Amino acid sequence: MDLTLFVWRQKGPDEPGRLEQFEARDINSEMSFLEMLDVVNEGLIKKGVEPIAFDHDCREGICGTCSQVINGVPHGPQEKTTVCQLHMRHFRDRDTIYIEPLRARAFPVIRDLIVDRSGLDRIIQSGGYISVHTGGVPDANAVLIPKDDADSAMDAAECIGCGACVAACPNGSAMLFTAAKVAHLALLPQGRVEAATRVCMMTEMMLAEGFGNCSNHYECQAVCPKGIRVQFIAKLNREFIKARTKLLLP
Ligand code: SF4
Ligand code: FES
């Protein structure tokens, strides 16, 4: 495949950015999108040109590092697929592809396609964990958990913290991400103990980091590579109201 790429280049957070044109030649359709970028970068390095900076780690769809906006869509055109798992066979020979970083006020660009998503880490640090002593490993079935709750907790725990939901939201909201983390812990007995303080701390941090509120566009669900559903945002809202009542907060 031969492709024309328009890639966002930006030297640093305070530098102006622009789309630059590159030609990707002889791309194998079985390559992943990141492997295609590797080939382009090899060519740039050989010519003495600064390679395109992009984030990646696991390249198997589990770490959430590789988020890019491809033709206007975070993670590109393939549903429930991260950029590293997106294959070139989903594009056509001689296509023109636009590649940009995740766009959100809370995600400043570090360089080219790399943005600073540490705001999501700070939301987790504020309460996305269990600190109660849960004892040793219990016998199987010693703590009975309804099957629906266990399934739902596992669905929520699939979130890989990629930030695509934030970039897709017109309000730059991190509600889907925060909701997934709050829900997966609140649905299990070990996580229930701290559920009230957790949801208050995490939503407070979410706002402090500059993420917006949910605006009911459902764009987050549409681009989420792990299929996290907006129903978890309703769960987050219920947990929030329960917590404010329990903690007697205004
Ligand atoms: S909810 Fe989905 S889109 Fe948002 S951070 Fe988690 S995995 Fe990524
Ligand atoms: S590199 Fe880990 S999810 Fe893509």
Task: Tell me what you see in this structure.
The chain is an alpha+beta fold and 250 residues long. It is built from nine helices and seven strands; from the N terminus they run E-E-H-E-E-E-E-E-H-H-H-H-H-H-H-H. The chain has helices at 33-46, 118-127, 147-156, 164-168, 175-186, 189-192, 195-208, 219-223, 231-246; strands spanning 3-9, 18-24, 69-70, 73-74, 96-100, 109-111, 114-115. The strands form two sheets. A five-stranded mixed beta sheet has the order 2-1-5-3-4. A two-stranded antiparallel ribbon has the order 6-7. Strand 1 and strand 2 form a beta hairpin. Helix 3 runs antiparallel to helix 5 (175-186), helix 5 (175-186) runs antiparallel to helix 7 (195-208) and helix 7 packs across helix 9. The longest helix has 16 residues, at 231-246. The protein is elongated, with a radius of gyration of 20 Å. Residues 56-59, 61-66, 82-84 line the site of FE2/S2 (inorganic) cluster. FE2/S2 (inorganic) cluster binds next to loops.
